Amino acid sequence: DAGITQSPRHKVTETGTPVTLRCHQTENHRYMYWYRQDPGHGLRLIHYSYGVKDTDKGEVSDGYSVSRSKTEDFLLTLESATSSQTSVYFCAISASNQPQHFGDGTRLSIL
Amino acid sequence: QQQVKQSPQSLIVQKGGIPIINCAYENTAFDYFPWYQQFPGKGPALLIAIRPDVSEKKEGRFTISFNKSAKQFSLHIMDSQPGDSATYFCAAPRGGYNTDKLIFGTGTRLQVFP
């Protein structure tokens, strides 16, 4: 495996609460990504990072924020969770000019 | 805005069959086409990838064929096995590099029966 740990693996929460998902890597790779996976949509990029404190938006970034204060950690925050954010969230990492490798995901349910 | 269209949505074959999954793209800036394999409860794993300067690439039982003029690329699985049962995604990076933001197809669920 590519040395990626996502936490928590499962979470159930209520609408309007803040939620933070964590991605931790042990590969010292420069690039980190957050995707969400929904039936009929494949995987869609939320945010990505190309270095410590360097982040950019993906195609479905509304309602999400990210932070990367250390090379190994990339946090995804839902400031006020909504039911439409119920999904499976995947973190991916890559080194320069190398393919992306994915973690095993976090299943998030918002009631 | 979907820029990679994948078909079929699901596929059922018998062991030994040759399932074929197709992807069509619009953006000619795409310059790298990976395929990912995903088992239930796991993240996608890179299976095989191709650049458009070649028309075909094989890795074991998996083959990508590429048709640049038609803007299409396909995954063939030779002598398919029940262990190949998974969901397969094609993808393309917006800027043409491995590290760029990937755009994924919607996935094909493959079931291989003994």
Order of helices and strands of chain B: EEEEEEEEEEE
Number of helices of chain B: 0
Secondary-structure element sequence of chain A?
EEEEEEEEEEE
What is the chains' assembly state?
Answer: heterodimer
Report how far the terminal alpha carbons of chain B are from each other. 38 Å
Strand content of chain B: over 45%
Low-confidence stretches of chain B are none
Largest protein-protein interface: A-B, 28 and 22 residues
Distance between the termini of chain A: 32 Å
Uncertain stretches of chain A: none
Shape of chain A: globular
Total beta strand runs of chain B = 11
| Class by SSE composition of chain B | mainly beta
Percentage of residues assigned to helices of chain A: under 10%
Q: What is the overall pLDDT average of chain A?
A: 94
CA radius of gyration of chain B = 13 Å
Which class do the helix and strand fractions of chain A yield? mainly beta
User: How many H/I helices of chain A?
Assistant: 0
List keywords for this structure.
heterodimer, A: 111 residues, seven-stranded mixed β-sheet, four-stranded antiparallel β-sheet, B: 114 residues, mainly beta, six-stranded mixed β-sheet, 11 strands
Can you lay out the helices and strands and say which pair or pack?
The complex is a heterodimer of chains A (111) and B (114).
Chain A: E1 4-7, E2 10-13, E3 19-25, E4 31-38, E5 42-51, E6 54-57, E7 64-70, E8 73-78, E9 87-94, E10 101-102, E11 106-110
Parallel strand pairs in A: 2-11
Antiparallel strand pairs in A: 1-3, 3-8, 4-5, 4-9, 5-6, 7-8, 9-10, 9-11
Chain B: E1 4-7, E2 10-14, E3 20-25, E4 33-38, E5 45-50, E6 56-59, E7 62-67, E8 72-77, E9 86-93, E10 102-104, E11 108-113
Parallel strand pairs in B: 2-11
Antiparallel strand pairs in B: 1-3, 3-8, 4-5, 4-9, 6-7, 7-8, 9-10, 9-11
